[in-house]
Design a protein that fits this description.
204 residues; alpha/beta; six-stranded mixed sheet; binds flavin mononucleotide
Length: 204
């Protein structure tokens, strides 16, 4: 089993989403092959005229070839994964720009999606995805759901590339005092454990 962990917090070891992702990894079978792509610690370059040309068209210059090779590597990690874990902190009501940049590199026509006469078709099939969201506020019922630009965007992007078996686990109210934060983090950890158990991914 290949597991790709895409983490995107700027907060390193102190990050809630990173810590939850690591707890999920700990609950997996030790035989699982874990690949880590930490775009929070090692951000990908934003797209430029040159890299858009390289990723969407035919690369010609050395810089374009390098950009294409990076995108190919990131897409290859996704294609090889049976399970994809995306650790997503909320920054300014959306995903972090580092995670958005990762999507900009992996949304590739012909590789991860294609357009057909019936509309777009996602090409990443038969994979399980777990999204771990962490945020200070509360965007569920009774909170401010209209300000959640994170999960709807993630749902659109993951669906677009064909990732349709997705569990969304959210640690929120992280700024509502230590008790609320702890309760939310532990509830998220329990849900992750259950997912690992349900999907028979649990360590023996
Ligand atoms: C730059 C920045 C922007 C943030 N914006 C929001 C926000 O819009 N809404 C929110 O609920 N929390 C916001 N937060 C709080 C984070 O979502 C919270 O600290 C969360 O734990 C981050 O995930 P991490 O611990 O995995 O890094 C922000 C934090 C930072 C550093």
């Amino acid at each position: 089993m290949n597991v790709l962990i895409v983490s995107s917090s700027a907060n390193g070891d102190a990050s809630v989403s990173n810590r939850l992702a690591e707890r999920f990894v700990d609950s997996l079978d030790p035989g699982a092959r874990i690949v880590r792509r930490d775009v929070g610690a090692n951000p990908l370059p934003h797209l430029t005229a040159e890299t858009v040309a390289a990723i969407k068209g035919e690369p010609a210059t050395a810089a374009e070839l390098e950009a294409r090779a990076l995108s190919d590597r990131l897409v290859g990690e996704l294609q090889a994964a049976d399970v994809i874990v995306i650790a997503s902190p909320m920054y300014n009501f959306g995903m972090s720009s580092t995670l958005k940049s990762w999507f900009d590199h992996v949304a590739r026509a012909g590789l991860t999606f294609r357009y057909t006469a019936d509309g777009p078709e996602g090409l990443l099939k038969g994979k399980r995805t777990v999204v771990i969201e962490s945020r200070a506020g509360f965007y569920g019922e009774g909170g401010t759901p209209h300000m959640d630009g994170q999960e709807p965007h993630l749902r659109a992007l993951l669906g677009f590339v064909g990732l349709d078996d997705v569990a969304y686990i959210t640690a929120e109210k992280l700024a509502f005092g230590p008790e609320a934060a702890e309760a939310s983090i532990e509830a998220a950890a329990r849900e992750l454990n259950e997912i690992a158990a349900r999907a028979l991914l649990l360590a023996a």
